[in-house]
Write a structure and sequence with these properties.
Layout: H1 2-8, E1 13-17, H2 22-33, E2 39-42, H3 49-58, E3 67-70, E4 73-76, H4 78-86, H5 90-96
Parallel strand pairs: 1-2
Antiparallel strand pairs: 1-3, 3-4
Length: 102
């Protein structure tokens, strides 16, 4: 978990993604649409991408991308993000973690 922990440290929103994943693109677009500027790590473009994938799977991410961290906490993948959004809880969470200001 060392790599993932280091990469999410001190960042409001981190998304682990793959450049060819359409679901990842949708989640990035959704979060950016609220004015957030997430840190995005494209695992297929990083030399340590496979190791990061293993760490994300060990944390419970299945599939391993997209994996969204808000406030250094793993929120989950696309299902969890869309569920929070539909319940009206995603924006308040982004505001709480100072990822967006309204």
């Amino acid at each position: 978990m060392a790599i993932v922990t280091r990469l999410v440290k001190d960042r409001a929103v981190v998304i682990f993604s793959k450049s060819s994943c359409c679901i990842c693109h949708s989640i990035k677009t959704l979060i950016c649409s609220f004015g957030a500027n997430p840190t995005v790590y494209e695992l297929d473009e990083r030399p340590d991408g496979q190791q990061i994938e293993k760490e994300l799977i060990a944390l419970g991410c299945k599939p391993c991308v997209p994996a969204v961290f808000i406030g250094q906490e793993l929120v989950g993948g696309s299902n969890e993000i869309m569920s929070l959004h539909l319940k009206g809880k995603l924006v308040p969470l982004l505001i709480k973690e100072r990822a967006i200001w309204l």
